[in-house]
Design brief:
heterodimer; B: mainly alpha; Ammonium transporter fold; two-stranded antiparallel sheet
């Protein structure tokens, strides 16, 4: 169960790290090798990106046997934010 | 709308022509008149019938859907209804006197009343004679009247986007009737009737960049100033009701525009084919340009942006469509995408008018870009002539001034007859319920 969950979170990390830091990681190796996983977590947190840090901390909680923080929606703009873009302009 | 290449050479048939000679001579010498039916080209006529239907499709339902998707839910029905109502009002104005004022020779500035109530337009029961316009001598005049009517319809229909969500319906009907008669018909005469003063200057406007889009764009801006902003403009969000409607509308506009531009060759010939090709090329280029700009500025490409880019490209290629090659179309699409994006965002903030659906930002700016680039990029191999920047600039300025001032005067007059603006309560309730007692549930 833990490996499946690790792989799922690592897949999100893979996408985010590639987008934010242009860095490619090995998802399967992360699930198998704790040292590699912690190095990736440290690197992800250092990037200063909220979404990336949130995913890294979820993975860290899994490694530490803690309760994994609930998954929140990705950083898509909220409905309110979308509405605000129509103040005084349409396009 | 280009003067038909067949205008100069009237093809005489072998039928009994004796009784038709005086009117045939009239048709050939500069005004509409009767010709033998053998002069009519079946191919040209079939294409022009098709093109006419395509251009009407642009307004109904193209523009109706395009605009309806961008307003708030409480104004969707009224906005779509305005396009339908404009179609009917302009049709009547056109057949009563609009066509005659626009497309009969009389003076540099306005046509005559020769075709008032379409008097003289006809088809002999014995099949020997049929009336044609001197501008399109290979198709029946009835087709030409209808084709030009669809242009006369969509031009004021574009204006409804500028005063959306706040105009009283009766005032709008009166305004549109007067605007069609006093602004559209004269400008069409100036540019498209061979005796018009801008046509005489050498202004190139193949399908209506000046007559339709600059004209509607500046008039829309004046409407926005005179009516004032919508309640809450700049403070609360006005989210569009359903951008799927807008996509459907933009798609219908795009397809219909082939009738608009390629139909303006008034013949089924190579020039019509070139007009269709460059229309597609410029539009695709403008869409990609708009998307790239949005990506750069907002880090997202939006559907509304892509639809807006399409209309921007279509508008800008309109005056050039019978004069430029594919390379010119790429340039026009690129410049139109950039300029209209600025027109609907940066320039809109500078102007400060609540031009609700960006009629000036897209049609006005796109029309100006197209008119000026036609002067620069016209290829004699395509259209048989070079462009003239001085003439093009003259056409732009004359239309901006005449249409702007004329629209302002008409709005003041209409406001005296019937208040233009709905009450604050009616605006709050929405025009669907306050003007038409209907609503989307």
């Amino acid at each position: 169960m833990a490996d499946t969950e690790k792989t799922a979170i690592a897949a999100h990390l893979y996408v985010s790290l590639r987008r934010v830091a242009n860095r490619v990681i090995d998802i399967e190796w992360m699930a198998q090798n704790e040292e590699y996983a912690r190095a990736i977590i440290k690197f992800a947190v250092e990037q200063g990106n909220d979404e990336l840090a949130r995913q890294a901390l979820r993975y860290q909680a899994l490694l530490n046997g803690e309760q994994v923080p609930a998954r929140t929606e990705a950083a898509a703009p909220s409905v309110d934010t979308v509405k605000k873009r129509y103040i005084g302009t349409l396009r | 709308m280009a003067v038909s290449s067949k205008m100069a050479g009237v093809r005489l048939g072998v039928g009994s022509l004796a009784g038709l000679m005086p009117v045939i001579a009239h048709a050939a010498s500069g005004g509409p008149g009767m010709v033998p039916v053998t002069q009519i080209s079946a191919g040209d006529t079939a294409w022009m019938l098709t093109a006419t239907a395509l251009v009407l499709l642009m307004t109904l339902p193209g523009l109706a859907l395009f605009y309806a998707g961008m307003v708030r839910k409480k104004n969707v029905l009224s906005t779509a209804f305005q396009s339908l109502a404009v179609t009917c009002v302009v049709t009547l104005v056109w057949v009563v006197v609009g066509y005659s004022l626009a497309f009969t020779p009389s003076s540099f500035f306005i046509g005559g009343f020769d075709r008032a109530l379409l008097h003289g337009l006809g088809f002999s029961p014995d099949g020997t004679g049929i009336s044609v316009s001197h501008i399109a001598s290979s198709v029946p005049e009835a087709v030409f009247v209808m084709f030009q009517l669809t242009f006369a319809i969509i031009t004021p229909a574009l204006l409804t986007g500028a005063f959306a969500e706040r105009i009283r319906f009766p005032a709008m009907l009166l305004f549109i009737a007067l605007w069609s008669l006093l602004i559209y018909a004269p400008v069409a005469h100036w540019v498209w009737e061979p005796g018009g003063w801008l046509a005489a200057q050498g202004v190139l406007d193949f399908a209506g960049g000046t007559v339709v889009h600059i004209n509607a764009g500046i008039a829309g801006l004046v409407c926005a100033y005179v009516l004032g902003p919508r309640s809450g403009y700049g403070r609360v969000a006005f989210p569009p009701f359903n951008l799927t409607y807008t996509l459907l509308g933009a798609s219908l506009l795009w397809v219909g525009w082939f009738g608009f531009n390629a139909g303006s060759a008034v013949a089924a010939d190579g020039r019509a084919a070139m007009a269709m090709l460059v229309t597609q090329v410029a539009t695709a280029m403008a869409v990609l340009t708009w998307m790239a700009l949005e990506w750069w500025v907002k880090s997202r490409a939006t559907l509304l942006g892509a639809c807006s880019g399409a209309v921007a490209g279509l508008v800008a290629i309109t005056p050039a469509s019978g004069f430029v090659d594919a390379g010119g179309a790429l340039i026009i699409g690129l410049v139109a995408g950039i300029a209209c994006y600025w027109g609907a965002t940066g320039l809109k903030q500078v102007l400060g008018a609540d031009d609700a659906l960006d009629v000036f930002g897209i049609h006005g700016i796109g029309g100006i870009v197209g008119a000026l680039l036609t002067g620069l990029l016209a290829n004699p191999v395509v259209g048989g002539m070079h462009g003239n920047m001085i003439a093009q600039t003259t056409g732009v300025i004359a239309t901006l001034v005449y249409s702007g001032v004329g629209t302002w005067v008409i709005l003041l007059f209409v406001n005296l007859m019937s208040p233009l603006r709905v009450s604050a309560e009616d605006e709050e309730d929405g025009l669907d319920i306050s003007q038409h007692a209907e609503r989307i549930v």
